[in-house]
Protein: Chitin-binding type-2 domain-containing protein
Organism: Notodromas monacha
Amino acid sequence: MEMKKMLLAASVACLALAYVASGRMAYQLPAEVETILRSPVVTSFDCTNRIYGYYADVDNNCEIFHVCHPIADDVGNLAEMAQFSFVCPNQTVFSQETLTCAHPDDAFPCDQAPTLFDVVNAEFGRIPQP
């Protein structure tokens, strides 16, 4: 009986690890996501050579955005760059200026979002001086 419990625990642990690892994969989006998007998903955005931050996906009309998260190894070197993908609610887009999903009329122009990538994301982790 103990062996069965150990095997069950090991199986659960493996499934949990696989679930966490899949969360680091880009474009893991909800089923039927294309029913709320203006066009089919384009999987061209990549976090390579980007700093930690939030990024509008211009190729997807900014209806999708990504979080790029560098993961360091034991000595502080970059081990991998995790990319998490999210979809804005129906009829909204990701505004690179405010890092929020907003009505398209209120959002920073999608085609200009890359001009703010470095500026806005460089602010993460900074403590304002009094």
Notes: Residues 27-121 form one domain. Helices lie at 2-23, 117-121. The longest strand covers residues 78-87.
